[in-house]
Amino acid sequence: LLSDRHYSFFGTVLSSPVAFDGLREIEVDGLVQDGIVLRFGDVPSALQNVVWSSPFIAIDQSGAALIEIPVIGRFLVRDGRDILFSEVAGATVATIQSAIVSFVAGAILHQRSTLPLHASCVELEGKVVAIAGPSGHGKSTLAAALVRQGGALITDDIAVVRWLHGAPHVEPGANGLRLWPDAADAAGCIDENWAPVRQGHRKRVYLAPAGSGDPRRLEAILRLAIEDDSLEPGVRRLSGLSAIVPMRNLVYRANLGTHLGRQAALFVDLSRLSDCVPIFEFRRPWALSQLGIAVDMVREVLSDLAVTT
Amino acid sequence: VSSARIAWIASYPRSGSTWLRLALSALDSVRPVDINRPELKVRVAGTLEFDEFFGIESSELLDSEIDDARPALHRAIAASAPGKLLLRKVHDRYWRTSRGETVFEAAISLGAVYIVRDPRDVAISFATFRGLSLDDAIAFMGNADAVMAARGSGLKSQLQQPLGTWSEHITSWLDSTAMPICLLRYEDMLAAPIDQLTRAARFLGMPADKSAHAIESVRFDRLQEMENVQGFRERPRSAPRFFARGRMGTWKQVLTADQRRRLEGDHELIMTRLGYL
Predict the structure, then answer these.
(1) Residues A159, A119 contacting (CB under 8 angstroms)
(2) A98 in B contact zone (CB under 8 Å)
(3) Average pLDDT in the A257-284 region?
(4) Cβ atoms within 10 Å of B191's Cβ, excluding its own
(5) Main-chain phi, psi angles of B172, to 5 degrees
């Protein structure tokens, strides 16, 4: 549609009839090739031929995903290209946008056969580092602290890897950091503007300055260890299989990828990635008050890279 | 058999469920107990598990949406291990969602081992564990809206678990007729651990012939020593140590007369029913 706005969306273009302020708007000349189109319309309440379902998502034989969040609405996500959305009265644009960069992205990026890491990426002193791990391990928290130290946010929570000239690059994502209040305080985001991720939710989105918008070469991957009193803080280079398993700790919604038939391909992609980029186990000090030490540990990893490469 | 049967290891926090969990793990294990790697057969309802089973970020969901999906989560867990007995530790009271669905469905449940401990000792242990004053711990135990692992200002690794008051917690499980319940008193577990572990094991259909060995391997001083040397992954930062004293009757030295009266007043009926008064 002529009236559509276009946004950078993890390496592709999302065309939308509504304006999203958390995504980077881009100019498009002529037709968008291979983009994603958001439309509002009637979404069926159930799919036929369901092969897998949870209270929130169902996947059918064709790989279409029906995502339903009762107070937001229903999204029908097909072919990695179409998002049909029927909203629940009262859902704000910010809430819809938030659902698209989390719940919907999980399905559509696997439909598009990408490698979406569960990671936040920051460029620090010219080097891009991916901070990877499942929810609650502190990805966005550490990314926020690095941004406060002069880093540039490339993407938060989801990092789509793209191969350019044989080297892995990270596609820019949404330009917000999603933080719980305690993490935001620890990272020093106290005075900045934020909005709740959703109406009635305590997690917040802090808008970070947008980077260049180009894919950035990935230099290192840090896999955050889970908080564990029995482990000392430290960094350890991982090799072989240990670098890429369990896959669910490294890939965004790996289980959806599995239900969409992507398991073997994801494993191949991760193996290729681990051949090109050093992957580290990163055990940060567990107390949020010691976030500064974690930042120094990241700096050390990056400066060691400079020596060895 | 199309799905697993879940046995719930249920209790109010700081009532000895971790100790029972380790003892049950030791029952059919040939390896020595390691508090940090107890062949984790007994799991707690966690956010990672929720995200994994449902293909969605629970951190982006509202508390009410997570609560409403708990019954489905338990069904998914049961369906993931056909024909097996799964031990699941919960601190929830027995409750229903806003849609009226019971969270612990009889159809997927073998039953519940419910552990109680003298609330006067619970208050002391809970205060240390959470970094609260004794008065605040006592108030928490009398708060009908109390929740464990609530996502106040930050994400928690466990899903939030409604507790209710200490008394309500107990009656919600003991007076529910939904499933068979094996009631264990913490004080009996201290006094006659082998007998009580054997009771729990028989209830769960687990082999009980190694109860003496299992109890020996989870002796309190051993657990404390292990925590001293290697730490304990389940210790919250608010607690100086997880395996604190584990004794009974500590309240006689620690609580003021007023604190004792408040607890006994708040929970008189249930304390009497369980033989604590």
Answers:
(1) yes
(2) yes
(3) 96
(4) 11
(5) -60, -40
Distance from the B232 Cα atom to the nearest Cα atom in chain A, whole angstroms: 5
* Structure confidence by residue, pLDDT tens digits, B34-84: 666 544 455 677 888 999 999 999 999 999 999 999 999 999 999 988 888
CB within 8 Å: A136 and B232: no
Least confidently predicted of A57-66, A249-258, B2-11, B91-100: B2-11
| Amino acid letter, residue B145 | D
Q: How many CB pairs under 8 A join A and B?
A: 100
Could A55 and B69 be called an inter-chain contact, meaning their C-beta atoms sit closer than 8 Å?
yes
Rounded distance between C-alpha atoms, residue A86 and residue A297, angstroms: 46
pTM for this prediction = 0.91
CA distance B116 to A58: 41
DSSP structure string for A63-104: --EEEEETTTEEEEEETTTEEEEEEPTT--HHHHHHHIIIII
Q: What is the pLDDT of residues B199-238, one digit of tens each?
A: 999 999 988 888 888 888 888 788 788 787 777 777 776 7
Q: Which of A54, A136, A197 is nearest residue B60 as measured by Cβ atoms? A: A197
CB of B75 less than 8 A from some CB of A: no
CB atoms within 10 A of CB B58: 25
* pLDDT tens digit sequence for A138-179: 899 999 999 999 999 999 999 999 999 999 999 999 878 999
Q: Best mutation site among B36, B47, B56, B241 for testing chain A: the one with the most A CBs within 10 Å? A: B56
First CA to last CA distance, chain A: 48
Give yes or no for a contact between A152 and A216, defined as CB atoms under 8 angstroms apart.
no
Rounded to 10 deg, the angle between the B17-27 and B193-204 helix axes is: 70
Q: Is B145 on the interface with A (CB under 8 A)?
A: no
* Cβ contact B231–A99 (<8 Å): no
Interface predicted TM-score of the whole assembly (ipTM), two decimals:
0.92
Chain B: nearest CA to A54, how far in angstroms?
5
Amino acid (1-letter code) at residue A136: G
pLDDT above 90 covers what percent of chain A?
73
